[in-house]
Design a protein that fits this description.
With about 475 residues, the protein is mainly beta. About 10% of the residues lie in helices and about 30% in strands.
Length: about 475
C-alpha cells in the first residue's frame, strides 16, 4: 500500500478554493478534489460547501453517495491521511453554552453563543422539506438539556387549577396531528437592510426560513382538556414559556391571541416530532409550540408552561422586540409600546440559484427560489425579471395546493430562460399571495431600526460567460 503524508484538520481547512486547491476528508483520509469540482454532478457550488472539511455531513443528504462507485471515484484523489494524534478540545465547564449539541458544518453561522445559523442558499430550495440538520436555528440562550422521563408541561387552567403533562401523556392522551409548515425569523434578509442604514441584529441572509412536517398534539385539544372554553369575551392571549433562561432565571417567552390558539383551522401544535423523528435539541426537544403562518419567534421551543392571560406575554421578546417601526424612528425615539407585536408575516420570496456574483454559462439558465406568505395565504404567483424589473416572466410553482386559508408551507419555484454570453443579469423576484399582497420594490421605504420584515424584491446580479 502506498505511504501517504499526514495532515491536521487545520491544514486541510486552509484548502477551500480552486485557487488554493480544494481539500476534503472522508473518514481519516484526505483528498484533493480540485480537478473534480467542475465535474461534480450536483454542480461546483455544492461540493465547495464541504471544502476544507469533512464530506460525511453533506454526503448524508444524498443517498447516491452511499454507492460503491462513488467511494472508488473518490479514492483517485487521495493525497494524505489525518494525523492520528489529533484530539478534540475538552469543553469548558464554566461556559453556559458548553452543553449545546453538535451542528452540521454546512450551516452558515451568524453567532456561536447563542447559536444562530442558516442553511446555505445553494441547498435551501433543493427539497420541499428542509432536513432537520439544515433547518435554520434561532436560539436566544443556551440550549437546555432535558431528561424526557422527568419532563413536565404545565398548563395553568381556569380557576387556578394546573394540568401537568408528561411527554408520554401528551402523546397518549391527545390525537396526533401533523402539519407541514414553514417557519421564518422576523430578521430574515436583514443583511439587505443593513446596506441602507445600519441596524441592530444578526446579519441573516435569505436562509432564516425553513419548512418541516411537524407532529404533535393540537394546542386547542390541550386547552379544552384543561377546562378552557371555545371562546372568551374580550381580548385574551395564550402565553408560552421555554426552559431556556437567562442568568437571572427569566425564560424565553411569547404569546399568541386566544382565538388563534383555539381555532380548529389554525393548526397550532405542541409538537414533539419534526420530519418524522423526535425534535432535535436545537429545535425544541422534547416539546415546542408550532404556530403556522406566524413569525417564528412565537413558536417557543423547550416548552415548560402554557398560561391564558388578558395580557400578552410579559417577556422581553414579546414586549420590547420583534416589532416594526417607521424608517423615521431611531434608537433615541423608539417606544416599543406604540407598535403591535409581529404575528402574521408579509409575503416573501428569494432567489436561491444562481448565487450573487456567479458566472453562469450561456444557453439555458434555471433560476430557483422560494416564496411564502403568512396567515395561511397561498402564494399564487412569482414574477421573475432578468433585467432589474423592466420586463417580467412568470415562474413555475411547485408543491401541493393547500386548503383555502391554510397554506402554511412555502412554494418552491423555478424559471428556465435562454441567456447570451457577454451579458450582465440583474435577476429579481417578487411574490403575490392570495390577497394580492405583493412585495415592495425596494428596501429603503421599509427600513426599520431592528431590520425586521425585510421583504423587498430580492435582487441577484450575475454575469453570463463562456
Amino acid at each position: 500500500a502506498p505511504s501517504y503524508p499526514e495532515y491536521t484538520r487545520e491544514e486541510v481547512g486552509r484548502h477551500r478554493s480552486p485557487e488554493e486547491r480544494v481539500w476534503v476528508t472522508h473518514g481519516t483520509d484526505v483528498f484533493d478534489v480540485t480537478d473534480f469540482v467542475e465535474l461534480h454532478p450536483g454542480g461546483p457550488d455544492k461540493i465547495l460547501l464541504a471544502a476544507g472539511g469533512a464530506l460525511e455531513p453533506f454526503w448524508a443528504l444524498y443517498a447516491v453517495h452511499g454507492e460503491p462507485h462513488v467511494l472508488e471515484l473518490l479514492q483517485q484523489y487521495k493525497v494524505g491521511e489525518l494525523s492520528p494524534d489529533e484530539a478534540p478540545a475538552a469543553p469548558d465547564a464554566q461556559d453556559p453554552f458548553a452543553g449545546d449539541p453538535p451542528r452540521h458544518p454546512g450551516l452558515r453561522v451568524n453567532s456561536q453563543k447563542p447559536f444562530n445559523a442558516e442553511p446555505p442558499a445553494e441547498l435551501l430550495a433543493e427539497r420541499f422539506l428542509t432536513p432537520n440538520e439544515l433547518f435554520f436555528t434561532r436560539n436566544h440562550l443556551p440550549v437546555p438539556a432535558v431528561e424526557p422521563s422527568s419532563y413536565r408541561l404545565r398548563v395553568d387552567g381556569p380557576g387556578g387549577g394546573t394540568l401537568s403533562l408528561s411527554l408520554a401523556e401528551l402523546r397518549s392522551r391527545f390525537p396526533k396531528h401533523e402539519v407541514t409548515a414553514t417557519l421564518q425569523c422576523a430578521g430574515n434578509r436583514r443583511s439587505e437592510m443593513s446596506r441602507v442604514r445600519p441596524v441592530k441584529g444578526l446579519p441573516w441572509d435569505i436562509g432564516a426560513i425553513s419548512t418541516a412536517r411537524w407532529g404533535g398534539a393540537r394546542l386547542r385539544d390541550v386547552l379544552l382538556h384543561a377546562g378552557f372554553p371555545e371562546e372568551l369575551q374580550g381580548e385574551w392571549h395564550v402565553c408560552f414559556e421555554g426552559l431556556d433562561a437567562d442568568p437571572g432565571g427569566a425564560p424565553y417567552g411569547a404569546s399568541i391571541p386566544y382565538g388563534r390558539a383555539l381555532s380548529p383551522a389554525a393548526d397550532v401544535l405542541l409538537a414533539y416530532e419534526m420530519n418524522g423523528t423526535e425534535l432535535p435539541r436545537d429545535h425544541g426537544f422534547p416539546v415546542r409550540v408550532v404556530v403556522p403562518g406566524v413569525v417564528g419567534a412565537r413558536s417557543v421551543k423547550w416548552l415548560r408552561r402554557v398560561a391564558v392571560s388578558p395580557d400578552e406575554s410579559p417577556s422581553h421578546w414579546q414586549q420590547n422586540d420583534y416589532k416594526g417601526f417607521s424608517p423615521c424612528v431611531d434608537w433615541d425615539t423608539v417606544d416599543y409600546r406604540t407598535a403591535p407585536a409581529i404575528q402574521e408575516l408579509p409575503v416573501q420570496s428569494a432567489v436561491t440559484q444562481p448565487r450573487p456574483g456567479a458566472a453562469v454559462p450561456p444557453g439555458e439558465l434555471t433560476v430557483k427560489g422560494y416564496a411564502w406568505s403568512g396567515g395561511g395565504r397561498e402564494v399564487v404567483r412569482v414574477d421573475v425579471s432578468l433585467d432589474g424589473g423592466r420586463t417580467w416572466k412568470v415562474a413555475r410553482l411547485m408543491g401541493d395546493k393547500a386548503p383555502p386559508g391554510r397554506a402554511w408551507a412555502w412554494a418552491l419555484w423555478e424559471l428556465t430562460v435562454p441567456v447570451e454570453a457577454g451579458t450582465e443579469l440583474e435577476i429579481v423576484c417578487k411574490a403575490v399571495d392570495s390577497s394580492y399582497n405583493v412585495q415592495p420594490d425596494s428596501v429603503a421605504p421599509i427600513w426599520n431600526l431592528r431590520g425586521v420584515l425585510s421583504t423587498a424584491w430580492h435582487r441577484v446580479r450575475v454575469s453570463v460567460q463562456d
